[in-house]
TrEMBL record:
It comes from Hibiscus syriacus (Rose of Sharon). This is Fe2OG dioxygenase domain-containing protein. InterPro entries: IPNS-like_FE2OG_OXY, IPNS-like_sf, Iron_ascorbate_oxido_reductase, Oxoglu/Fe-dep_dioxygenase_dom. Coiled coil: none annotated. Belongs to the iron/ascorbate-dependent oxidoreductase family.
Length: 221
């Protein structure tokens, strides 16, 4: 990823994070629950008894003006052009990172010709994640161990740590947050495509720091 792309992505991410922490996730639950979809898991997730600290909003096809406008109008009926522009800008830049990683992957396997098909047929889902600070005697699990169904997942963390990934010896390793880096994780679709040579990345969120954790994720499906 070039330095220019990285700087632009970080700037766009900071704008989105500002909306995420100060506005979007602070809307009443009944408003957030209007973030619906006819696709499984492409909608608002939250208010779960098993994961009381976790909330997530979703925008399918975040590079599309119509998709971002639909979400924006849901949250801000009077409009919020800056938010929509930040979503599209950030999504364009992070999907460029996906294209770079995908091209390198296909070429390393000697199937570079597959890249164009992948690029034309890949869809994107942008997710905002919020993990509330656990209260006294409350379980600190933000989200339980799992893999994503995606080809790739790219996560951009805020300032609060908590993301852990499982490595080959079955140990959990914390991925420290950084405003200038992304976490690229293989999903189940990539594992199937590579005939299990690239395993899905098991990950979870455990909240140990004080404060609310925010992060952004783009899922490639």
């Amino acid at each position: 990823m070039s330095g220019e792309v990285s700087r632009n992505a970080v700037a766009s991410k900071q704008n989105l994070r500002r909306y995420l922490s100060r506005f979007t996730m602070q809307f009443p639950t009944e408003v957030k629950m209007q973030n619906t979809s006819n696709k499984p898991a492409f909608h608002y997730l939250g208010q779960l008894k098993t994961l009381p600290l976790f909330e997530s909003l979703a925008i399918d096809h975040p590079k599309s003006f119509d998709s971002t406008a639909s979400f924006t109008n849901l949250m801000w009926p009077d409009g919020n052009d800056r938010f929509g522009e930040s979503v599209q800008s950030y999504s364009e830049l992070v999907t460029e990172l996906d294209r770079i990683v995908a091209r390198m992957l296909f070429e390393s396997y000697g199937v570079g010709y597959y890249y164009d098909y992948y690029s034309k047929n890949t869809n994107y889902l942008l997710r905002y994640f919020k993990y509330n600070e656990p209260m006294m005697e409350q379980n600190n699990a933000g989200i339980l161990p799992h893999t994503d169904k995606t080809f790739f997942s790219i996560v951009h963390q805020g300032n609060i740590s908590g993301l852990l990934v499982k490595v080959k010896d079955d140990q959990w390793v914390e991925v420290p947050p950084s405003p200038t880096s992304f976490v690229v994780m293989a999903g189940d679709a990539l594992m199937a495509w590579s005939n299990d040579r690239i395993p899905s990345c098991y990950h979870q969120v455990i909240l140990k720091e004080k404060g609310t954790r925010y992060s952004l994720g783009i899922l490639f499906h």
